[in-house]
Amino acid sequence: MAHETTTAPAVAETSLNTPHMRRILASSFVGSAVEYYDFLLYATAAAVVFNKVFFVNLDAGWATFASFGTLAAGYAARPIGGAIFGHYGDRLGRKKMLILSMVMMGVATTAMGLLPTTATIGVLAPVLLITLRVVQGIAVGGEWGGAMLIALEQAPKKKRGFAASFANMGAPAGAALATLAMSAATLLPDEQFLAWGWRIPFLLSAALVALALVIRLKVSESPLFQKLEQEADRRRMPILEVFTRHPKQLSLGILAGVAQFTMAGMVTVWAVSEAVANGADKTGVLNAKALAAVAMLLATIISARLCDRFGRKKILLIGIVAGMAAAFPILNLVETGTVAGYATAVILGQGIQGFMFGPLAAFIAEMFPTRVRYTGSSIAYQASSTIGAGFTPMIAAGIMAATAGGVILGAGWITVLAICAIAVVIAPEGRKRELTDI
Q1: pLDDT in tens, 56-85
Q2: Total structural domains in the chain?
Q3: CA distance 316 to 334
Q4: Within 13 A of 142's CA, how many CA atoms are on the CB side?
Q5: Domain-embedded: residue 13
Q6: Which CA distances in Å does 191 have to 137, 187, 195, 220, 224?
Q7: What does the alpha-carbon distance between residue 253 and residue 265 come to, in Å, rounded to a whole number?
Q8: What b/e readout covers 98-125, taking b as 16+ CB neighbours within 10 angstroms?
Q9: Residue 353 domain-assigned?
Q10: Rounded distance, CA 307 to CA 162, Å?
């Protein structure tokens, strides 16, 4: 295999504040932000648009359920993307897979912006929508692992948690940008917004992907992978090795990630639809969601710094316990049907989610050896996103449609996070481990 034209230092940097590391961290952050802009833009559209233009023959409650079902399809595809891109990322390199995943995402999102509605082409419209959503899911499934490892595997040991979190920081940044773009579109009269205004944020994806590709193409391959490439058996099968030799690490990584993704599904997707349905102004709700993404970004930065000092597990557990305590207060705030109530709920929820998000990348990555780290980390993270964020909005909508009350929903929320906390307690602490010794 030909080597990359841009080469990395033979040894790890001693600081994150060098031209080489700044370029790596910028690529990790900007690339993830653009990918998650595309992926999470769909979540916002599913809450406020798609039930009105692609599922027009259902009553309001079940149209929302169907809309969230297509959202779940993308999340279901994420582990598939993680497995495929992770497998080849462990065999062919992190950088190649990052470029491919970004191109796939940009094409799918731009195509969504051009998709005819059900009124124009009938049932084919939601079928095409689901197909493109699956492509999005596969693409974002391959993005996170590569973006995270490019940073983690080249960072100094005592700053790995913070470096790895730059891939996670891209998620709230992309979410804020996507939400603001859709919020701006909602300023149009409803008729124009539903006819064409919602498409503009999707079409912007093409320009954002082009910008991110320019940055990403300048990044060097991970030196740990370059060393592995010279020594590894060309016939090895990383995807099989993860399931046969590291099933415990995979299971614990999935359960740990489910906690923060459950928070995401509840407060940034289901709660948007619920607040608007109860009378809150949708533009105000989306602006509050964008502000909450900033709160999540700040919490991610703080918790990532703390996890390098106190350990990944302690910080994760603090976030999970806080999420359990906040479940019923958040549900009650959402049910007020006011922008202020939703804003308080989403800022609280996203802040707690960010506190879990900061240490999560390093926590998962440090459980797998270099030869399968892309595959193992990607499958664990993406499977947790499918379980937590992918199905939570649909399940929550179904529970509310069937029971019209939040007691069962809140109890379920707390139970899920308690199970996640047990997994974190059982898992090994990776802060002091050498990546080459795992």
Answers
A1: 777 677 777 777 777 778 888 888 998 999
A2: 1
A3: 25
A4: 27
A5: no
A6: 30, 11, 6, 48, 54
A7: 18
A8: bebbbebbbbbbbbbbebebbeeeeeeb
A9: yes
A10: 8
Residue 14 falls inside a structural domain: no
- pLDDT lower than 50: segments of the chain: 1-12
Residue 1 lies in a domain: no
Instruction: Report whether 308 contacts 160 (CB < 8 A).
Output: yes
> Which tens digits make up the pLDDT trace of 202-252?
999 888 888 888 887 877 676 766 666 665 555 568 889 999 999 999 999
Q: Is 416 left (phi over 0), alpha (psi -120 to 50) or beta?
A: alpha
Contacts of residue 189, defined as CB under 8 A and 6 or more positions apart, other chains included, come to none
Contact 174, 32 (CB under 8 A): yes
d(CA 300, CA 377): 19
CATH code of the domain in which 343 resides: 1.20.1250.20
Residue-number span of the structural domain to which 185 is assigned? 20-437
